[in-house]
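Z., the sequence and structure:
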Amino acid sequence: DLREISHSETLLINEAQDKLRDSNNKIFKFGFGQSPFSPPDLAIASLKAHASEHDYLPVAGLQECRVAVAKAHAGYRDNISSNDVVIAPGSKMIIYAVMACYRNATVLLPQPSWVSYAPQASLLNHDVQLIPTSFDAQWKINAESLNIACQSAQGNSPLILVLNYPGNPTGMTYTREELASLADAARQNNVLIISDEIYAWLNHDNQHASIAEFYPEGTFITTGLSKWCGAGGWRLGTGIFPLNASKEFKVTYNGIASETYSTTAAPVQFAATDIYNNMDKLLPFIDAQRKILKGLSQVIVNDLKNANVRIHAPNGGFYIFPDFSNYKHQLINKGIDTAEKFCVELLNQKGVAMLPASAFGFDASHFYTRMCYVDFDGSAAINAYQNGAELNDAFYAEYTPSVTGGIRALCDYLQSL
């Protein structure tokens, strides 16, 4: 009598990619969203220096780390204090714990959304309601669609919106005007927003704004080290409670944390403290990532558009969400009538590994996929860029060959249809 739960599609594709690559097959890995960049020297040195730290730390996190996190995110909204901050083994755990604070809730998710939000809500027996988006809307919800979703929610259960921007799987983000409008709708409907801003500092133009600025009383921010610091395996996530969050909310959250993950690895928390306290020294490292990722995304988007693929240039992170519907008839004539079959075909024929839209809340018949452009040596790319290399086609051919080669392989397949 086991609970039915799917395994994370992103983790499964990563394992499948590695198995195929281990079999000496040429695989272009577009399936798993791990930063291609290594943690900066400052972070590595600090982790080594604190390797001997072995005590259990407070459930909410090391106080010095919470102070540093509050300081580093001061621009997200007014009056962030260390008492608003929690530290956990990854932001994924924080999102789950916030949902778990509620006995019965309706979790509102943009369609598409990251693969783990809906399963997390289902594990807690929450209702899940998808908010439709479209290619023309850049895969973003708006105040009208949020209002409709809130009004159609069943019963009087609490409403939780999980909003991720720049987004996985689309790479798109929201303007300040769009965030302000969404905030008004959320306030009118008494929605708690879990604002997953893990890719915020990889906004390609360094223009990220948090919805907490417009809806401070109802926004729980999550972020961490995994994406901008290249430290996914370190498992350090941070959460920032809404402004004036009730004592009961914080007690409930910390109670759940204490009975599940207990605390985050001590050496990592001490290292994170040094990282967040030295953000000024890390700005060149972050800026180099933004510029390299933005330039690479432009190369990819141009190639796909030239191949008659519908695609938006991403605003941040390292994902794209192409629409292959212009090839739908040709694919169906080959017996390929779902995005999942399309992904299997590309993997078998060209070694191109990516995820179908069905992993992100869409019906299988939609020919959308998610692609992560991270299969390259980020450290080598940053070193070359910081030593004067220009971010042009020659740069990406040399430093991101698996990414550019995979896009060529994909376009070659489309041309053959």
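The longest strand covers residues 106-111. The CA atoms of residues 149 and 213 lie 23 Å apart.

Let me know what you think.
H.
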